[in-house]
């Protein structure tokens, strides 16, 4: 599976934790640059993880809209493994 992480400058151990969930391809977009709002989602992406505490409302809305168009599921969470794990459980159960 592949995942695009949007938000945050540093990811720490989050990529390692995502690998333990079965993600083999992990891409990261900090979302800090003004041009990031114009970036399109990669073609072969299974999940988008948006760090709500590191992106603007405009970028979050664009990612959500683009993901819906492409049929890609989106997870919104704070940049903390506890929040990500909780959102992931809701994601796989919902």
Automatic annotation (TrEMBL):
InterPro entries: UCP020408 (IPR016772). Belongs to the UPF0751 family. This is Dihydroorotate dehydrogenase.
